[in-house]
């Protein structure tokens, strides 16, 4: 019988069913494992070790040992290692995209874009590694000279999500390695094979043993997370996921040791279309921002606010494009597929609950609105809802699915108030041709990232992160490395002796 994964890869050796600790692919000492399924077919793709605290501690020890020497590696050598990793990711892009589609479900076209995005962080941080600078500061004390240097924080625990299994690894690990740190990655139970393949390529790139470790777990996720947050050897935690879990991790990090923390948490992004907007451009922006990865991204607009004077035309054009341009299915077996399944039943049930709640309170379905059981158990039609109001669950809860909910508004002041009426603040979008309004609204939105007349804001060159309960810290850009560094001040005294007296 043909293997469900290896036969689909050009390089079958990229498919790893173990965890990676200190340069070796290892099983769990307990012998336990968990299955990984294809969300498009429910087929079992393979198994990964159910690691626990014991294996996590071993990975931390390996990372600590590797850090002792790597911290003194030259910036140029770090850059060369990251560049070799980048080259291998690029060379194996097709296999990586196939793995993403198999275990995550996103369309192959989306998966290929993710691999390119993932590689771009390795390229970016390879360029940034030699540019970690300090300062020379004129002291107020006579005879003193002050300077600052940046030092790596040490061992970092990276807890990554299932929705971008390749890109979130490189966005975190690329910055950590560029800064001179070592990492222990807790991969998501839904999508471990993509991360394993990425780390195998890091291994082939010559990244020293112990610098990058991967611990796999599903049922033991909480135990592994606790091992990372409680270890005094781990100096930094970076987490992408829900606000609820982020708060738990933050609390745990303060119970035993104080650690640097970066949290990229949930969103409830507003997408605003003002009366002076280019409607066709706004519709295109809505398509690109809302329906990428079937709406399973933290920066997807959850609430589309459209001025009442252009509401009907915007909603009609959006629904028409969704109905005519989208093809839902399994892109590994069907050509032309633009959108795949949701990740699992819990995700689909939340989407369905939000749609039913909205319809029961007066919303109209302009496109989609239902499951596609003939395709599989996790497929849901991309949906456009009109006549939304703030009493509906969609207004306050992140859907994380392919549902565009379109709300009316009358004034700029009203839409700013409604947009900010949430505890989270990751991303926000708006479309307007008025340059004065652009500055007003961009400053008024309580979010960490704003897209003006665009639905695409993610870029390795830009700082990614939120405010309020969407977390803190930034990933990507030159600021991304700062999250993995600490500043040391050095004051030199005794500089008052006259040179003349020494001649």
Automatic annotation (TrEMBL):
One of its GO terms (cellular component) is cytoplasm. The active site is at 264. Residues 25-490 form the Aldehyde dehydrogenase domain. Its EC number is 1.2.1.16. Keywords: Oxidoreductase. Pathway: Amino-acid degradation; 4-aminobutanoate degradation. Belongs to the aldehyde dehydrogenase family. This is Succinate-semialdehyde dehydrogenase. It comes from Cladophialophora immunda.
